[in-house]
Write a structure and sequence with these properties.
Helices cover about 60% and strands about 10% of the residues. The protein has about 400 residues and is α+β, with helices and mostly antiparallel strands. The protein folds into three domains: about 130 residues, no CATH class; about 70 residues; about 150 residues, Heat Shock Protein 90, CATH 3.30.565.10.
């Protein structure tokens, strides 16, 4: 029995208008009853046969072939009957075959076509952003029910993911506004403090020159100068945190940049029993980097290593090439970093030093990431710490331009 014209045309329209949604759903819903992906490649799901055959024809032709073969055998078996009886039997058999085909089509339309049409409608709703869509045939205990349950589960996961993304977006926007306000406040305070600080430094310099050489106030003036320098360094770090500068990439010798930082660090430890060894990279090509910023990163790491060493110690600095990137390692024999502190050392204002600002490593990571690189740390308590700065030898085209 053929399908009603309205139902047939509706199915065709949905099939033709929603091919894209159907192909997307195949890759998401082709899974086992437990919802595991069956591993269909994207290329397999995107290929559509050039000739489209209606599903009713695909389903009914095996049934029709079997019925025709049965009628042929039935015809051969009725050769001995008279023509009138034979014709009557054949008419009854043909009518039965047609009835069987009609029943098969109606049964398939009820069990397969209606769920498929509903699935396509719900997929279209999902494509429009309605993540409350669900199919009603998910309660069936068969493959069609498995398909419905997988679809409902997929939509639920999409809905939960969207809610989580929206929550994270709101949180990030709130934090961004908070940091922007702090940045403006820090920039204003830094400028307001720097101006009188410069005046204080000038007055201290004059007072120090006018004091007699034997005056005990000479040592006090020296300490004041050191404190002024410390305050100025804190303000500089604060300004760089609130107002970061984009790196100016140039191809140059990274060994020279590292050696300059090592030389300054050696001057800092001249009065301490600390040795700094430098091993330059052999046959290292020129690296695209901002030498001033990388110099700042390495000097900060070297000074941290110096402060981590109590008594005699050794700091090793090495440069080498690895996987089309330049790697600079700074290793010390200091006290190491506790394991519970490692996840936090790159956070702004986190410090375990009494006179530290907690901005040095945060700035270092920001600079390295601006170079499309990464900074890593490995530490063993009581044995030392190793920082590794990895910078690509050639920057991406967008970054280099």
């Amino acid at each position: 029995m053929p399908m009603p014209d309205g139902g047939r045309s509706r199915g065709r329209d949905l099939n033709s208008d929603r091919k894209v949604s159907a192909r997307r759903a195949i890759s998401l819903l082709s899974s086992d009853p437990k919802g595991h992906n069956a591993g269909i490649a994207p290329e397999e799901t995107s290929v559509v046969p050039s000739m489209r055959v209606n599903w009713q024809l695909k389903t009914i032709w095996p049934v029709a072939v079997v019925l025709l073969a049965g009628m042929l055998l039935f015809l051969l078996s009725t050769v001995s009957l008279r023509d009138t009886e034979r014709h009557r039997v054949l008419v009854i058999a043909g009518a039965g075959a047609v009835a069987i085909c009609g029943v098969v089509i109606v049964a398939l339309a009820s069990t397969i076509q209606r769920p498929m049409i509903e699935l396509q409608e719900q997929m279209e709703r999902v494509g429009e952003g309605h993540l409350t869509a669900s199919v009603s045939f998910a309660r069936r205990n068969d493959e069609i029910g498995d398909l419905g349950r997988n679809f409902n589960r997929m939509v639920q996961q999409l809905r939960e993911s969207r809610e989580e993304i929206e929550h994270l977006h709101r949180t990030q926007m709130s934090r961004a506004e908070h940091f922007a306000t702090l940045g403006e406040l820090a920039t204003g305070l830094a400028h307001e403090i720097r101006n009188p600080l410069a005046g204080i430094a000038g007055v201290i310099e004059i007072v120090g020159r006018d004091l007699p050489a034997t005056s005990p106030a000479k040592s006090v003036v020296k300490e004041v100068r050191q404190e002024v320098t410390q305050i100025n360094r804190i303000l500089t770090d604060l300004l760089e945190t609130a107002r970061p500068r984009a790196p100016e990439m140039r191809s140059s010798d990274l060994n020279t940049t590292v050696e300059h930082a090592v030389m300054l660090a050696r001057q800092q430890v001249m009065s301490k029993p600390i040795k700094i060894e430098f091993t330059p990279g052999q046959n290292l090509p020129e690296v695209e980097h901002d030498s001033d910023q990388i110099h700042q990163v390495l000097l900060n790491l070297l000074l941290n290593s110096e402060q981590a060493i109590e008594g005699p110690g050794l700091v090793r600095v090495a440069v080498f090439e690895q996987n089309e990137a330049a790697v600079v390692t700074v290793s010390d024999t200091g006290r190491g970093i506790p394991a519970e502190h490692l996840p936090n050392i790159f956070r702004p204002f986190f410090t375990t030093k009494g006179n530290g600002t907690g901005l040095g490593l945060s700035l270092a990571r920001r600079i390295v990431e601006a170079h499309h690189g990464q900074i890593e740390v490995a530490s063993s308590l009581g044995k030392g710490t190793t920082f590794s700065v990895v910078v690509p030898i050639r920057q991406p085209i967008s970054a280099a331009s």
